[in-house]
Amino acid sequence: xxxxxxxxxxxxxxxxxxxGLVGCTPASASPDHLTLVGFAVVRAAHGEARESxxxxxxxxxxxxxxxxxxxxxxxxxxxxGLPADVVHLSVVADVERLVTAGRVDATWxxxxxxxIASQSVVVLVVRPGNPLGVTDWAxxxxxxxxxxxxxxxxxxxxxxxxxxxxxxxxxxxxxxxGGAPGGTPSQSEAEGFLARLLGNVVAYPGSGRDAxxxxxxxxxxxxxxxxxxxxxxxxxxxxxxxxxxxxxFLVQNPAAVTTDAPxxxxxxxxxxxxxxxxxxxxxxxxRPLGDVGEVVVPGATEPARxxxxxxxLVTLDDVGGWAAVDAHLFGPDGVVTRxxxxxx
Length: 344
Hints:
Blueprint: H1 8-19, E1 33-39, H2 43-54, E2 63-69, H3 71-79, E3 86-88, H4 92-100, E4 116-126, E5 147-148, H5 156-168, H6 187-199, E6 201-203, H7 208-216, E7 222-226, H8 227-235, E8 241-243, E9 247-257, H9 263-273, H10 275-283, E10 312-314, H11 316-319, H12 322-330, H13 335-341
Helix pairs in contact: 1-3, 2-10, 3-4, 5-6, 6-13, 9-10
C-alpha cells in the first residue's frame, strides 16, 4: 500500500474550504436562528441534541445553520469571521484562539464544567476479527503495521490521539516533588516511541471523520480514533471493531457561545450540558459528563455496557496541562512537528 504524507498545502486547502462558508452560512438575524460551528465528529450528536432541545420551550421554533470540519480549521475560520453563535471544538486551544480574536468572552470556561461539553476516550480501531491481534499501543509500532490517524496540523482529534500514545509511553511534563518534570527520565523513551509509531502512519487525513472514512475505504490496518467516532461508524454500518488499550486518554471537548450570540445560544449550550443533551451525546457514543441513568448504545462493543472503565485513564492534568503539552508536542519546534517534518 502506498504511503501518503501530509503536504503543507493540504491545511491551506482545508482552511479555504471552511473559510468559504463565511459567505454561505448566514449570521443569526434573530433569536429564532442560531449558527453552530463544530469539529467534524460532533455533527450527529448535535442532530440528536437539537431535536431534544426543540421539544423544550426555549428551543421551540429555532432554525439552524451549521458547519462542521477539522477543529483547528473551524477555529481559524471563526476567528477570521465565519458566523457562529455556538462553537463546539475538539481542544481548548481552539476556543482560546477565539478569545484572542474577540469572538468568545474570556470567562467562557467559568462554569462548573470548565467549558467542557463532551468527552470520550482514545481507542484503536481494527479490522473485523482483529486479525493482527492489536491490544495495546506497542502493537502499532511493529514492522509492517499500517496506521491511520488525522493530521495534528488541522485536527484536534489527532492531537488527542498523539497525547494518548505519548502518555502511554510515560510522556508527561508534570513536575514531580522537587520541581523536576515528573517524566524527565522517560521523555526520550516516550519521544522514541512516538517516532516509531508515526513512522508506521500511512495516511494523515484532515479530520477525525476523514480518517474514519479513509480507514473504512481500506486504508491501513489500525485507525487511532475516539470511542464515540468508532461507535458512530458502527452505528452507520461500518464493519470495524475497536479496542480500548490498557492506558488511554480522557478526551474532553470544549464549547462556548460567541460574544454577539443571542440568549438562546446559551440556552442551547446549557441543554447540551444537561441530562437530556448528555443522553443525546451518549446515543452517538460520547461518555456523559455526569449521571444520566442507564443508556443502551447501539454500536458499542457491549451496547448495554457501552462505556467500560479503562484500566488506566490519563488526563491533561496528569501530563502537565494543555498549554504545556501543546507547545511541547505540537508547537513550531515541538516533538511531533519535528518528527513530521523529518518524515518519521
